[in-house]
Amino acid sequence: MVTPGGLVVLTDRRMARRPLTWVVREAVRGGASWVILRERDLPYGERSALAASLRALLPAGRLIVAGPDPLDGDAVHLAAVDPLPSGRVTLVGRSCHDFSDMSAADYVTLSPIYPTRSKPGYGPPLGPAAAAGVAGDVPWLALGGVDSASRAAECAAAGARGIAVMGAIMGAADPAGVAAELITAFQDRLGAVMPSPAPTLPGERDESTPCQAGGADYPQAAGRGGVWRS
């Protein structure tokens, strides 16, 4: 199973400065590799059609639908109070803010990491280091106020699998540029904190395998059970 990583975009059509599909397309062009479709207030037919439109902009399996209905997909992201899906899905994420039960989640978003303009007063902020302690061995995405290169880098240094961004992308005049700035800072810092693999001695076979996150190969990183689930 591949769990979300890198730059993950959360949608909010009301916050978007241009049509939502255009904003997502530009964010993907800038380096975003996963999208979580929110818009839970839309009628079913409209939301299903929007999901189909966004899937066309992404590699297969990279659209995650908020709520227990995957809308003809196989990946969902649940709120703290959402039940597990009744049908078959291959990827389940959950929004967490504290030491919640994460046993049924393949990954979690932890929020808010920083004060956020999208949801003022929502908090208090966890901070990257505390979020890492909350997540433990579960792959986690940093959500909330990750709106600058320095903050993206701090989240990578703390061990975040990726950064989940809404307001900074939705409200941007140049979503591709913002996406590129955030993912570059995140990946650069992630590369700096990842240990280099030990050299292979003559006669030994190199059994290390890469872990794919956010569309790029990274050295294998610790996750649930000691390795990232992929």
How would you sum up this structure in a few lines?
28% of the residues lie in helices and 18% in strands. The chain has 230 residues and is of the alpha/beta class. The radius of gyration is 17 Å and the shape is globular.
Write the layout of secondary structure elements.
Blueprint: E1 6-10, H1 20-30, E2 34-37, H2 44-55, E3 63-66, E4 75-78, E5 91-96, E6 107-110, H3 128-135, E7 140-143, H4 149-158, E8 162-165, H5 167-170, H6 175-193, E9 211-213, E10 216-218
Parallel strand pairs: 1-2, 1-8, 2-3, 3-4, 4-5, 5-6, 6-7, 7-8
Antiparallel strand pairs: 9-10
Helix pairs in contact: 1-6, 3-4, 4-6
Protein name: Thiamine-phosphate pyrophosphorylase
Function: Condenses 4-methyl-5-(beta-hydroxyethyl)thiazole monophosphate (THZ-P) and 2-methyl-4-amino-5-hydroxymethyl pyrimidine pyrophosphate (HMP-PP) to form thiamine monophosphate (TMP).
Region (Disordered): 197-230
Explain what this protein looks like in three dimensions:
The chain is built from 6 helices and 10 strands, in the order βαβαββββαβαβααββ. With 230 residues, it is an alpha/beta fold. The chain has a single domain, classed as TIM Barrel. Strands 1-2-3-4-5-6-7-8 form an 8-stranded parallel β-barrel, surrounded by 5 helices. It has a two-stranded antiparallel ribbon with strand order 9-10. α3 runs parallel beside α4. The termini are close together. The C terminus is likely disordered. Condenses 4-methyl-5-(beta-hydroxyethyl)thiazole monophosphate (THZ-P) and 2-methyl-4-amino-5-hydroxymethyl pyrimidine pyrophosphate (HMP-PP) to form thiamine monophosphate (TMP). Keywords: Thiamine biosynthesis. This is Thiamine-phosphate pyrophosphorylase. One of its GO terms (molecular function) is thiamine-phosphate diphosphorylase activity. One of its GO terms (cellular component) is cytoplasm.
